[in-house]
Amino acid sequence: MTIRYQREGTTGYLLIDRADRRNAITLEMWQAIPSLLDEVEAEEGLSVLVVKSADDGYFSAGADIRELLANKDDDDWRAANHAAISETQHRLERCPLPTVAFIDGDCIGGGCGLALACDIRVATPRARFGITPAKLGIVYPFHDIKLLIELVGPGQAKRLLYTGDLIDVAEARDIGLIEIIASSPDALERAISKASGSSNRVMKALMRRILDGQVAEDAKTQALFADGFRSADFLEGAQAFIEKRAPDFS
Question: Is the pTM of this model over 0.70?
Answer without folding.
Answer: yes
